[in-house]
Each structure stands twice: as C-alpha cells, then as structure tokens.
Sequence to fold (243 residues):
Amino acid sequence: MPASQTTPASRTTPARRVEEMQALHVLCRFCASALYEKPTAEMIAAYAQQADLFLGEPFASAAPEPGRALHVLFSAAGQPEEGEALLQELGQDYTYLFLMVGSSRTSPYESVYRTDDRTLFGPTTVQVRKAYEAAGVELASSEHEPDDHIGLEFAFLAHLLGGMSEALQEGDQERLGAAEAQLRAFAQDHLLVFSDAYLYNLTRQAQSLYYQSVARVCSNTIALLSQEFDMGPVTSVGRESLL
Fold:
C-alpha cells in the first residue's frame, strides 16, 4: 500500500477498503507497542521467531526499508547471547529516549510540545482523554500518566481502524461514518499536530537501529493515514520546539 498507489476512498471497492483499514490497523498497533512498551526478552524472542513478518505486508508496501532493517535486526537475535545483547542495547536506548527526556528532548507526550512551559497534563491531555471516553475506549495507562502519550494515541487510532474494518465487513455505514469522523478529528487535532516534531527528534536521538527504524515506520504510517483520509495540510508544532 505505497502512498503513491493509494486509491481515493470514492474509487475503492469495499473489499479493498477493508484491506486498507486492516493494514493501517496493523501498522498503528505496531507503532503503539513500539513507542509505549519497554523492550522485554519476551518481545525480542517473539520478533526473532517471526522476523519475516517485517518483510511481508503491510510493512513491504508501507515501510519497506525500515521493515528490512527490523527483519535483519531480529533475525540476528535468535540465539540467547544475541538476544540478551539486543535487549541490553534497546533497554539503554529506551531509558534515554523515554525516561531521560530532559537530555534526549524526545518526550512522548503531546502536551509537552503544545504548552509554552513544556509541561505534562496540559489542556491537550484533557482533550485526548475526552476523545477516548467519547469513543468508549479505556487504554492501558496508569492514573499517574498523561493520556496523550504518542503510543496511546496510536493505539486509539488502531482501535478506530479496527472498528471501521468491522463496520465495512458488516455493511454498517452509520458505525463506519462515526468511527471515521472520530479518527479524522483526533488525528488532525492531536497526533498530526506534534508527531512530526516528535519523530524528527526521535530519529536524531535514537542510538539503536530498532528505534531509528520504528521512527521511520511511524512517519510512513502517519503519511498514509493523512493521505488515506485526505486530511490535507495540518498545522503542526515546529521541529525545533524541543531541540
């Protein structure tokens, strides 16, 4: 599903539209997991056993180069020693990118990018929480963590895309229209506003091939979402906001 070959919704068959929603659903779920969850030995072992998935769809069309890089990375992690070394590498990078954000300038929270004093729990956090609640979604964040973590925002889009896929297969146009309206509004009001700055910073600061590749998959996924739903230009915070 390369961006250059995406078919406008008005000219897409129902079956093809389902495939597109399912592909975007898979990509958003991957982005959500990669950006929200700390790397574990279990995660590395699972990807090592299924490294070929990064060569297949939707990665082959949506993010071929980072997909190949992830395939090479996890193919080499099949042995215990290699897996342990990779876990240590990713653990160090995770700590720097997601916990030492004062140094890395890669805070994953939207409000940091959209408040003058770069604080957590800003107005956008409340808006994001209300969007989740309006859609009947309860995501796995703690009560002490802001709801506008970019990983949770990707997870929310994955939820909406899954609902759209089901509605398409069931021919439920009302449910389909409601989910699409929620997705479009949320992406334009939140994810697309700060993700470019965040992913730019993440790409520059990541020390591991894994997080560099994750950033590229996420960027490609957002570009596809924007094109698929014809969102047009989005006003975004500048990349220099946290540099």
